[in-house]
Amino acid sequence: MTYERDNIRAMQGYTSGEQPDDARTIKLNTNENPYPPAPGVSEALRAFDPIDLRRYPPATARPLRTQIAALHGLAEDEVIATRGGDELLRLLITTFVEPGRAIGTTRPSYSLYGVLAAIHDSPVFEVDLTDDFGLPADFAADCNRNDCALTLIVNPHAPSGRLFSAEEIRAVASESKGVVLVDEAYVDFVDPGIRYDVLPLLREFDNLIVLRTLSKGYSLAGLRLGYGLGPASLIQPMLQKTRDSYNLDAVSQVIAASALADQTYARSTWEKVRSERVRMESALQGLGFTTWPTQTNFLLAKVPDDGPSAADVYAHLKNRGVLVRFFGTAGMDDKLRVTVGTPDENQRLLNLLNELYGTSTAEGH
Amino acid sequence: MTYERDNIRAMQGYTSGEQPDDARTIKLNTNENPYPPAPGVSEALRAFDPIDLRRYPPATARPLRTQIAALHGLAEDEVIATRGGDELLRLLITTFVEPGRAIGTTRPSYSLYGVLAAIHDSPVFEVDLTDDFGLPADFAADCNRNDCALTLIVNPHAPSGRLFSAEEIRAVASESKGVVLVDEAYVDFVDPGIRYDVLPLLREFDNLIVLRTLSKGYSLAGLRLGYGLGPASLIQPMLQKTRDSYNLDAVSQVIAASALADQTYARSTWEKVRSERVRMESALQGLGFTTWPTQTNFLLAKVPDDGPSAADVYAHLKNRGVLVRFFGTAGMDDKLRVTVGTPDENQRLLNLLNELYGTSTAEGH
Q: Which of A34, A261, B21, B215 is most deeply buried (CB count within 10 A of its CB)?
């Protein structure tokens, strides 16, 4: 017999991007930062005394939360540190969504949202983005009409890369009757000239939470460290009640602290990614791809109409050692999502595409 | 306004044992192993290349699971690696318990069980143990009558230290209509002469899961690494569906592997703890404490009737730099739970108790 709950039996788990064992594969498929973590991470690892592992770690990661609070000009009780952004998403659902009540998001969006909702036995209410991945004006009203207890907005948006403005987020927070999460997994790659910043809104609304992660901006996807920022009334129930009692191990807390301490290094990687993003955008357009404006470390690119399908291009690249992401879902089956790598990695991709499309427009490097 | 679900608003979070910042405090309150982790852990930390943190970790911790499976003579699909035992407990509830259905356990038991049930909005059905912390014969029948979807048995038992036999576990698994979890957090400290082993039962029943942790036996409480062993039909839904998509970071996976690889070292710490356990038992009895037979790395000790209360003894020891655990709950308010430390730590505790009780029965060391 089966002991699974009906909703668990009926659901599919999250599909991670491919993680090949082959170190030579160029991985432009899971939006990892192409540069190593800060030099201080290496020192923190070397300096860590293993005997400290004998004891339980700081349960609420207080030293790390103090550091994060200072970084953002917030109070310590407005910060929760979590095992990747994923844990924060789960805690939001556990804490604020009665099973069966809807969770609102956009279509398309980060595919994990639907998986977490299915685990919780809650429906997902998806609002279609506009043709150019814009947020419809009636988004919050639609979510309210469907009694959404929680609304999840990834901003900059995945998988398009588009940035919604702080004014748009403000409008959603203001109008929403439930909790609103702005998933800023990719925010570090936003052009600073845009002056995007939703953190001041945390002082204005009691229903707004912001998610950050060290996975991308700090080159620490392997560490699983994220955090949530928001009013204490939303943060504290997750921190004191629904979080696993020791959710962050002692090593991770120390490594995260060392990475966050070196903002200069982190910013240098963001700058390099932005610079390559511009080059890739122009090169892909030169090959006949359609791209969308992106403020992330990836580009969404529609393959040229008169060439091979996106599925075929994906397979062709994979056979030659370059992984990109092909979703194949409705509206996405003519597109590839390409992570911005190092200049060499990006050039390898462009060279392969040049061969495939028989052109010679690639810029030298 | 509050956005918390009603059940979350009404509940209290888990209360961790005190973790003083003062390194001089002798911590005999949270059942940590008093010895450092295996020498290989230090080497694994030094050898870890920080650039590996740039990429996502192995999502299902496959290399580690292969090693754990080999250690126990099981197949890889019968193993899930989790962030401490705590994550496994949560996954069991999420996967197998419809909210509102009961979770069975003993009274007393590990206090986290009730907290996790409250988060899930499920009642806990508690069956009183016998006066000497034995499992009542009608335990499973009682759980069935209360429609328990999951039964949680910590064995050896906490906070008493008593070991239920494999035959008793077999009877519970055989009779239970729901899933049965044997939480073997302390199993490494069981006297090998007893030949306790429930793993063969995993071949016999489709509803039995065993929890293990590296927190105590491998001196890695700070690492947050546990695992579940059971039939693939129970393990796979948790591994593939309800687990956070990357639940274990890359460093933890490697450190855990290095600790598990050195069974000789781990066993040497278990042997030392067992030897001190015997000494402590006899010394505490000599001071007038009542103790219960324990197969763990702690002792439950009732204070002498004609002396200060357990609360007072706890406070007296704490003032002098020795922390033990005082629960103060019904049936426990005349008892202290004392972790077995190093010979020096234990002697410091005994010296303080000798002073308090004005005797001179302490053995030298």
A: B215
